[in-house]
Amino acid sequence: MKLSRGQWIILIILVASLIGASGFLPFLFATILAFIPAYYYLRSIRNAEEEDVEPWETLWTSFAWGGITGIFLAGILNTIFTVSIIGILYGTSSEADLEVLAVFVGAVIVAPFVEEFIKPIVMLRNQAVKKEIDEVEDGIVYGAACGLGFGATENVFYGLTAGATAGGIGGVFLIVVLRTFSSILLHLVATSYTGYGIAKYQVEGESFGVVIKYYLLAVLIHAAWNAAAVSSLVYDNDVGAVLLLAFSILLAISGLELAKRRIRELDVAGSNIYGNSIRAGSDDRWSTSSIEQKSSWEQKKLRSSSVDSGQFNSSNSGQTADALYQSSTKTPQELADSTTEWAVNYDWRSAIGFVIFLFFILSDIIF
Questions:
Q1: Is 284 a member of any domain?
Q2: Do residues 274 and 52 touch, judged by C-beta distance below 8 A?
Q3: CA triple 92-94-98, angle to 5 deg
């Protein structure tokens, strides 16, 4: 991974400002606490793929974009847009109301739109990263890497705020660790959705509208999370805040597992359909002279036409096609068995956590 000159400048500015505000030892402590778990999260996401595992170099490029350039640009744009909106509303509300409104506008409206826009830009701009996104699941992996870099640096900032450092090393430890099991996973999950949309656009040739659709979904997830966090603070509901934190952590961890599961599903589906020797992104790509050097989208169309015309030469292609496309009438016992299997495999923890998460959002706002 090579940082650009601009990234080195931004990194020096960030490090100098944090050390100047809190001192070297708190900065070092918070950085270690924030970035070591982020590395293990990234490794876990990366290893969810069994075929064509993403190279560390491009993953670190994406991570660095989120953790250096992304956090810097987001900080500037968040401030500009929040101040602009509050400036427009100035004079229509009391000063106390404006303070509360500024928190809501900044966290619930501005930050989700700005941050979810900036974090995955590297997937569209950096040629090395774009080249590696040759499977749909790659978008989830690289989106997660961007989000993890952003979240890790953000955790350092929050761990070194005046409120955290007032409690000494213990205060820094508490803030960073709590965010390590909650907020950083929010960034991972939300940006992985946008990354998924980018991959569908680049790999499958869908219109750019698919990127916008998944970007807006990421914004919605981010905004809902921030709304819950802000409402628990504004309305001073201590019990609700504690329960909300617990279920937020549950939801965040479930989101991580859901992302890994989706990567595995797409990875296995690609292996079963195309075979490892010709699967998009593998080293041994379409070695026959008639179809060499094709783009990922062209390869996808060639594979589809080969399967349809019966010219696909993989030894298990016929079985795979039958398994994928044939339909059969199930007996009542088979339906019961499939229903039981679905119930066992369904991510009930995530579903229950999400429902209770929404409940506490509403309860904090209403009560």
A1: no
A2: no
A3: 85
